[in-house]
Amino acid sequence: MMIRDAKEKDIPRILELLKQVLQIHADIRPDIFIPGTTKYTIDELREILKNKETPIYVAVNEADVCVGYAFCQLREQPFSNNMVPFKSLFIDDLCIDQEARGQHIGESLFEYVKNEAKQLGCYEVTLNVWTGNTSAEKFYEKMGMRTKERQMEYIL
């Protein structure tokens, strides 16, 4: 298994994996997510791949087939005048093919993202996890992440 920057040739596999992660979210929040859809279109993925601020890292097998990805966004902080300026690498989406889970690919991909963040001069790596996605929460906690803030909602 190797981890590298995503290429345009990876888009079909990335779309398949996007469907897998969307289904997890749709199972947790059917009031928000539409099963069978993906977060991005082919054209949107092509644009994301061109942008240095939105790197996508892929884990590929021996045949150079994508078995996992991490969509990232380089962000400049702060959100207000009372915060120290710093860079953050936000993991927008991370998925390992359901057929390849349990092989420590997610751990390798996460470590790769952390190393990239260090090289980019980031202060932190952040992400959001939907309440109810307990396997993701456990994975990220195992990787050393801790809760930074909580977003709450009131559904009308």
Account of the protein in words:
This protein has 156 residues and is an alpha+beta fold. The chain has one domain (2-142): 3-Layer(aba) Sandwich (Aminopeptidase). 33% of the residues lie in helices and 23% in strands. The chain has helices spanning 11-28, 42-50, 105-119, 134-142; strands at 2-5, 56-60, 66-77, 86-96, 124-127. It has a five-stranded mixed β-sheet with strand order 1-2-3-4-5. A hairpin with an 8-residue loop joins strand 3 (66-77) and strand 4 (86-96). It is globular. The protein starts with a strand and ends in a 14-residue tail after the last helix. The mean pLDDT is 95.
The CATH superfamily appears as Gcn5-related N-acetyltransferase (GNAT)
Q: Determine the mean pLDDT.
A: 95
What's the architecture, going by CATH? 3-Layer(aba) Sandwich
Q: Could you say what the CATH topology is called? A: Aminopeptidase
Overall SS class: alpha+beta
Task: Specify Rg, calculated over alpha carbons.
Answer: 16 Å
How many beta strands in the DSSP annotation?
Answer: 5
| Estimated helix fraction | 25-40%
What are the segments in which pLDDT stays under 50 over at least 5 consecutive residues?
none
Which percent band covers the strand fraction? 15-25%
The major sheet is characterized as: 5 strands, mixed
Q: In the CATH hierarchy, what is the class?
A: Alpha Beta
Shape, principal axes of CA atoms: globular
List the total number of helices.
4
**How many domain units?**
1
Q: What's the order of the H and E elements?
A: EHHEEEHEH
Separation of termini?
46 Å
The strand line-up of the biggest sheet is 1-2-3-4-5
Protein name: GNAT family N-acetyltransferase
InterPro entries: Acyl_CoA_acyltransferase (IPR016181), Diverse_Substrate_AcTransf (IPR051016), GNAT_dom (IPR000182)
Pfam families: Acetyltransf_1
Keywords: Acyltransferase, Transferase
